[in-house]
Amino acid sequence: MGFMMGFAVGMAAGAMFGTFSCLRIGMRGRELMGGVGKTMMQSGGTFGTFMSIGWEYAAESVEEEPPPPHCKTAMGLFK
């Protein structure tokens, strides 16, 4: 789950930064699409990898706690 979320965020960032950098150096047409696509995949893969590591690390550090007493009645309604 962490990788997919990170990949989506990385692709969005890669689209913005890739478009800007490719236009800045003068790419057009297929060259532009290829450059932007490559940047999106690289950014998505990198950010997805780090997000999946952080996701697992955070999931291990959270301990299961019982809900507070005032929430037990509300939780009973939805079971």
Automatic annotation (TrEMBL):
It comes from the Eukaryota. The chain crosses the membrane at residues 6-23. One of its GO terms (biological process) is protein insertion into mitochondrial inner membrane. Has antibacterial activity against a variety of bacteria including S.aureus, P.aeruginosa and M.tuberculosis. Acts by inducing bacterial membrane breakage. It holds the Pfam family Romo1. InterPro entries: Romo1/Mgr2. It comes from Dissostichus mawsoni. Keywords: Membrane, Transmembrane, Transmembrane helix. It is found in: Membrane. This is Reactive oxygen species modulator 1. Belongs to the MGR2 family.
